[in-house]
Amino acid sequence: xxxxxxxxxxxxxxxxxxxxxxxxxxxxxxxxxxxxxxxxxxxxxxxxxxxxxxxxxxxxxxxxxxxxxxxxxxxxxxxxxxxxxxxxxxxxxxxxxxxxxxxxxxxxxxxxxxxxxxxxxxxxxxxxxxxxxxxxxxxxxxxxxxxxxxxxxxxxxxxxxxxxxxxxxxxxxxxxxxxxxxxxxxxxxxxxxxxxxxxxxxxxxxxxxxxxxxxxxxxxxxxxxxxxxxxxxxxxxxxxxxxxxxxxxxxxxxxxxxxxxxxxxxxxxxxxxxxxxxxxxxxxxxxxxxxxxxxxxxxxxxxxxxxxxxxxxxxxxxxxxxxxxxxxxxxxxxxxxxxxxxxxxxxxxxxxxxxxxxxxxxxxxxxxxxxxxxxxxxxxxxxxxxxxxxxxxxxx
Length: 396
What we know:
Blueprint: E1 4-5, H1 16-22, H2 24-27, H3 38-58, E2 65-68, H4 71-85, E3 92-96, H5 101-112, E4 116-120, H6 130-136, E5 141-145, H7 159-168, E6 172-176, E7 195-199, E8 210-214, H8 240-255, H9 257-278, E9 282-284, E10 296-301, H10 306-315, E11 318-319, H11 335-339, H12 344-348, E12 350-354, H13 361-381
Parallel strand pairs: 1-11, 3-4, 3-5, 5-6, 6-7
Antiparallel strand pairs: 2-8, 7-8, 9-10, 10-12
Helix pairs in contact: 1-8, 3-8, 4-5, 9-13, 10-13
């Protein structure tokens, strides 16, 4: 049975061209980039080439790029670093209710440190209101953090307009672009974004490496101390093979973005159309068209649990998800879906399909013919029935 991977929002396959570029830095050019000898200089030069490639992908100078261990660390450095650096001006942070836990849990920690956080609601499509941000801004607001695109339902936020509101209010604007990079243009020369987080493994690069864009002039307090690497903002011996992979993945992703986005959008639209037609009482979560990531299709189905669908699909050769891979082992309903106004049981009947440039239309057609019988069989076994008020005794 040929397996199909539809969980690319969790992680992606490393592009063979990326791996090829990384391999010499494990065995041949394995020096420490801080060393003065030729081994160290080779590693340093490779790191700086990756920094240049990352800067090019964002339309900015290499000096604005700090390498990290991934999106979570980048989010923490941006949020904590800016909050503490600007605490003398104010202690008010604004974010949205549907952010990744790397942002939400960091905000919750900062609340224990005396900071005030406003969590903006979203509409039924998962979009943050620009007017809502305007109304939430105060003289004490120092940092606004809104993700570029949601990792569960694929909603693409109006980052340009939101960043302008933050800037007009005298606050820094950060965006988590982990899901958006190589799928949505992120040109820092055109956007008033002060900080941007990204991760290699969501764009066909290796796991364990990411980057934080920091606009020139923005001051952050480090959250890791040690040898003073990365301009003193991220101490730790640099992961040269990973950094090389990140730079190459972004270079490839940006050069092929137009074709990849067009391909994934067609497959996404077919998956949405075909699944909604094939399964009665099925619904699409999030927006349609250009407001949605090209690789995201997120459904909910009445009267069944998402976990059952995942297991049955896996037996048929399909890898999918009920939501964020960071929280799928939790029995709690998705905070993203709850923020859309969905009921507890509606959240649990969810399914996320996320594509990559390696997926095909044939795989989508195979999925469409597979999902209907799976849902039908699960509904026959389900204790959930039409007409029952599940809010009386919520199932956990």
